[in-house]
Amino acid sequence: MIGSLTRKLNALTVTLVWVTWNLPVLASSKVEVTPTLPEGNLVTLSVRVLDENNIPVDGLNVEDFKVKTAKVSSLEEQDKTAQPTFSAVNNLQLLKPDEQAKSDLAYVVILLDMSDSMREQDSSGVRKLDGAIAAIRNFITLARNSKLDLKIAIVPFGENKQKLRCNYEVNSTEIDKKLLDVKDSVLNILVDQFAAAELCSATNLYDPLEQVVKYLGKPNRFTSNSERPPRISAILFSDGFDTASRNSNNPTSEAQRFAILKNTLKTSSGVTVHTLGYGERLSKLRSRVSCSQQVSDGENLVSDLLKYCKVANGKLEPLIVDEPRLKEIASVTGGISQFPENADEAAKSLETFFKTFREYQIQYSQPTADAADQYQVIVRVISQPRGINSVAEPQKIRFSNFIFYQLPLIPHRLIIFLISLLGMGTTVWLFYNWSQRLKAEYERFIKETRL
Hints:
Structural class: alpha+beta
Strand content: 15-25%
Mean pLDDT: 84
Largest sheet: 6 strands, mixed
Radius of gyration: 31 Å
Number of helices: 11
Distance between the termini: 95 Å
Low-confidence stretches: 1-6, 11-20, 22-27
């Protein structure tokens, strides 16, 4: 009974420390911490910092990270350990990107819209497909220049039953064929082919995304050698809305089709979907179109625009980006939604998605750690200029049964080196003197023998 009470008090103490440290936190930013197996007494923590829009925060300094640790009971001594006492870590280091360990394996599928509306120009006068291709090429370059262990598939989608060359079917076989290591040169060839492709398709948005999410979310499809499962993402790159479910001949309504897609997104755990809506914002579009009745924000905004509005000197359909649905798709899986209006903004949006694969890595030494010790660690990030003040959930770190200590270069390892050098020099000098004495005695023996 005493042992049970002790364990409950330990858990309560850790919780109280975490909650108390977290009391001033008002921002909705988020900090996620993943510890790795310590090397000796050296602890490395991978830290993700997300702002209120779930976008990774970069550019933080070591001063922005605060770490507290406390020794907790080992598995064998849970009933004997006193309440943990937390203390601040003062020797914290923030590893530079080129110093970081190789990141975990990641998989990403980029769904590229190949509908005929991608022939239209964006706000900067660039054809949308050209802007999309440039953004994807920039994404690939960023990945190749990093230490990311990334597998990527660029999968076109679009529907045209009359022209098969414009009908891009998305299924497991197609995704499998296109899933390549980011350093594979075949990836460049595929991107060039998409850049030169004819655009004559309709936008079937929901079915291709559903196929990709089912593919990525299949249990045990992907494995990783690290303790953590691989990171799995899909990026939906489109300039329009789902026209297939809004077809008058389609017996399934758009709302029904979207509900099916949402259920797939919710049940495919581990898959994050980011959405990129490339084109004019609906707020701008609504201000310049002519409508027979008032059109309000909400999930029916696209339907109402199509039903009640028209644009002078052209068609309205190619100009509509389904912001409500794209935002909801991303939010269901904890992803990011971006709505660039030109090619430069599209490239920056993909750079934002790329940052989700990167993490901060912080290190510190736990000089008091012994073999098989367990420590509780709490990480807090405070950056006034960025408006961040968040604390991560406590994590437990267990040191190896066999532990060694890495001594600092100055003075410890330098002293050991000098002592070793002196010892080797002394040994060589003694051996040389001994060999000289042996040689002299041998020569004296030979001389006496001849006499």
